Amino acid sequence: MFDLTNKNVIVTGATKGIGYGIAAVFATAGANVAVAARSLHDLDTAVAGLDGLGSGKIIGVSVDVADPRSCQAMAEAAVDAFGGIDVLCANAGIFPEAPLATMTPDDLATVLDVNVKGTVYSVQACLEALTRSGAGRVIITSSITGPVTGFPGWSHYGASKAAQLGFMRTAAIELAAKHITVNAILPGNILTEGLQEMGEDYIAGMARSIPAGTLGTPEDIGHLAAFLASDEARYLTGQSIVVDGGQILPESLDAVAG
Ligand code: NAP
């Protein structure tokens, strides 16, 4: 486990799923963690669950990442509470199904607003504080869907997750001189509240296509995020790292041993 004591961290979309797993790993490693999402009730529950895992402070911050002013307020709340921001985990994202034939302009706009604009707005809002850190870290939760694979019903989502990587590469160059690294984690199928809504058949089908035989856990993503946030990862930037139990490797279902 990397020691993240005294690191000041924001995790967006941290009341559930992957974001909560990242927040739990960071809290356990001693970081001060700002848990950010929209639902105030879920924020209270998440803060109560994370409090006491480590020695750092845990706060809840209400944010809608699709709104740049809300992202600005989130960054200000973290600076007020902790004195600065060292790590931004831009994790908040949505994945509603919309087959291409019936996808509406609103369906498309909503996914791009949260997943793409929300990532950019979150980074912009934290930029000044990340620069003051002297060792800032941006860790984006992208996906295998879009950058590497496709799945019917999620073309808009795949486009949004690939767009995050396009953003990351130029951001990594622009921010390198400020000693800020920008990297992306590409999870495969991770058992989260959001994924559970897709139903048991979806989950069982996915498990069959994964050489490791099971879906991942939010903490599997959290451990890579902790490494990317650590001092040891200071020279790693602009990279996208797949965490998927080998899911993108087989050429067909027959190629999955088991
Ligand atoms: P989840 O269980 O549905 O949780 C989503 C989190 O994001 C919640 O905390 C939610 O809280 C928050 N959120 C949603 N819209 C928001 C907004 N506009 N502003 C701020 N917070 C918002 O999702 P998940 O499965 O953990 O996915 C998290 C991230 O991982 C997403 O970027 C997703 O694309 C990516 N991912 C997931 C998987 C997977 O298998 N689960 C695979 C690849 C990539 P509120 O609704 O209260 O705001």
UniProtKB/TrEMBL annotation:
Keywords: Oxidoreductase. Residues 7-183 form the Ketoreductase domain. Its EC number is 1.1.1.100. Gene3D superfamilies: NAD(P)-binding Rossmann-like Domain. GO terms for molecular function: 3-oxoacyl-[acyl-carrier-protein] reductase (NADPH) activity. Signal peptide: none annotated. It comes from the Bacteria. GO terms for biological process: fatty acid elongation. InterPro entries: KR_dom (IPR057326), NAD(P)-bd_dom_sf (IPR036291), SDR_fam (IPR002347). It holds the Pfam family adh_short_C2. Belongs to the short-chain dehydrogenases/reductases (SDR) family. PANTHER family: 3-OXOACYL-[ACYL-CARRIER-PROTEIN] REDUCTASE, CHLOROPLASTIC, SHORT-CHAIN DEHYDROGENASES/REDUCTASES FAMILY MEMBER. This is 3-oxoacyl-ACP reductase FabG. It comes from Mycolicibacterium mucogenicum DSM 44124. The gene is fabG.
